[in-house]
Design brief:
By secondary structure, the chain is an alpha+beta fold. The chain is built from 13 helices and 18 strands. Helices cover 28% and strands 30% of the residues. Helix 8 links the parallel strand 5 and strand 6.
Length: 482
């Protein structure tokens, strides 16, 4: 991928073979992501480094090969979705009721948990994208949200306040409650829907940590906490195994040589792993080459075709439809009007309100003839400067960062790097990424009849939303073949 050099600089000294080119791509480093055809996996990694150098040299001089669990979360309980091939069987109704009841429990959350996340989403999406870029853009707001939440939990003072302000939370207690609710309504691993969220902390056994903080992270953020010597192979094997487990083994080829930086005092990891099949798959026989008008050049790529009745939405400067998945939300597609850039829509109040279901909706059930390019896009985002511009600056400065809450007793702790790596890919069968219900918004006049043709042959926006309306991934396709 184009930003391999940035990743290497950002994360430290890593063997370059650990970060291969995109095709075929198995991963990206220090826990960031994975995906394959029709799969999306995203992760954000924050690395907490300790200075001055004297302490680092002491870490290197001590050896502790112990690798153990400090805290473990109890993940949401979900009954398995019954086997539909046994529809009508004596146990089907009982199994279906158990599945429905367990899902219903998770979906019934106190009101207000989405409010702060939606405000964070509106501000963050525009801040993360580059309005002048002609390249693809893809970002998981949820993965970063969870990582920042954990960072707020281990910080204090002005460092915490800056994070809470960006997350639109009044205090740490509200953040805990809202993140727990958000996690539970989004998490799905029942055999029908897959949207697996996972958080973890990788601590250094040469340091002491406040057990209350680690338990709060397990209880509210569903974060597992591990400790060991970063130079120990046993500890690194735990690290690799955890990533493989949370990403369904998609990283196995890459993860086998991954190692924690020996100087790591703490690494925070947040992963989002989503997969789904289209409710109405595209017919592979109908997929044909076509022309995509990319910025500065025309490209030839494969266009998938379909014709289905669906809800069509028209805003002042875009048209939109959604592709439903089989029980796991949907992908919203937004086609800007001619002359309107998708990047500009990410800071447009009308479009952002549409993405968050906050505006009245101009909608119509129409027969839509759709032509959509298959795409496979990825991006590595170095988040340090972007977060600083949003107001989170102290955690990156060893002279002002406040991580006293961790209980290490050491000063000069700071976040050395915040990186997110994301990949989204779709084909005729489906999209493995996050998805859910999405809303639309009122704007220009609807087409005069009940039929419309939408050809996504120029840069467009996609959004993957959960069944509860939580945006999980958002991206701009400028180059479908990259």
């Amino acid at each position: 991928m184009k930003k391999n050099e940035e990743l290497l600089d950002a994360i430290g000294k890593i063997d370059e073979k650990l970060i291969p080119d995109l095709a075929p791509r198995k991963k990206s480093h220090k826990v960031i992501i994975i995906s394959s055809v029709a799969v999306v996996v995203a992760a954000a990694v924050l690395l907490l480094a300790l200075f001055p150098p004297k302490f680092i040299s002491n870490l290197r001089g001590e050896s502790n090969a112990a690798a153990k669990v400090l805290a473990a979360p109890n993940y949401p309980e979900m009954a398995a979705y019954p086997d539909e091939s046994n529809l009508g069987g004596s146990d089907f109704d009982k199994q279906y009721k158990a599945w429905h009841d367990s899902r219903d429990v998770l979906l019934k959350q106190p009101t207000g948990y989405q409010t702060a996340y939606f405000e964070y989403f509106k501000e963050t999406v525009g801040a993360m994208s580059d309005p002048d870029s002609k390249e693809n853009f893809v970002f998981s707001p949820l993965s970063l949200y969870l990582a920042l939440g954990m960072t707020a939990e281990i910080s204090d003072g002005q460092s915490r306040r800056q994070i809470l302000d960006v997350l639109h939370e009044e205090d740490i207690e509200s953040l805990r409650s809202h993140i727990k609710s958000l996690f539970e309504v989004t998490y799905a691993n029942d055999g029908m829907a897959t949207c697996i969220l996972a958080d973890s902390l990788w601590t250094n056994s040469n340091c002491k940590y406040d057990s209350t903080v680690l338990q709060n992270l397990a209880d509210y953020y569903y974060a597992s906490a591990f400790t060991g010597d970063p130079e120990s192979e046993k500890y690194n094997e735990m690290y690799r195994s955890w990533i493989n487990e949370q990403t369904d083994g998609l990283l196995s080829d890459f993860v086998q040589d991954m190692k924690l930086d020996p100087l790591t005092v703490m690494a925070l990891v947040s992963t989002v792993n989503y997969s789904a099949k289209w409710d109405s798959p595209f017919n592979e026989q109908a997929t044909k080459p076509g022309t995509f008008h990319a910025p500065g050049q025309d490209l030839t790529c494969d266009f998938m075709k379909s014709e289905n009745h669906t809800m069509f939405y028209r805003g002042e400067s875009f048209d939109s439809i959604s592709l439903d998945t089989n029980g796991n939300g949907y992908m919203r597609l937004i086609l800007p009007n001619e002359g309107v850039s998708p990047e500009s829509l990410l800071s447009d109040e009308e479009c952002l309100g549409f993405m968050l279901n906050k505006n009245n909706v101009a909608k119509k059930d129409m027969l839509v003839t759709l032509s959509l390019p298959k795409f496979d896009i990825s991006q590595s985002l170095n988040l340090n400067e972007k977060l600083k511009k949003m107001g989170i600056s102290d955690i990156f400065d060893p002279s002002s960062a406040d991580f006293a809450t961790l209980g290490t007793g050491e000063k000069n702790l700071y976040i050395s790097q915040a990186i997110q790596d994301v990949r989204v890919s779709i084909d005729e069968e489906g999209c493995k990424a996050a998805a859910v219900t999405a809303m639309m918004l009122a704007g220009a006049a609807m087409p005069p009849d009940d039929r419309i043709e939408l050809v996504f042959d120029r840069p467009f926006i996609f959004e993957i939303v959960s069944i509860t309306g939580v945006p999980l991934f958002i991206g701009i396709v400028n180059q479908p073949n990259s």
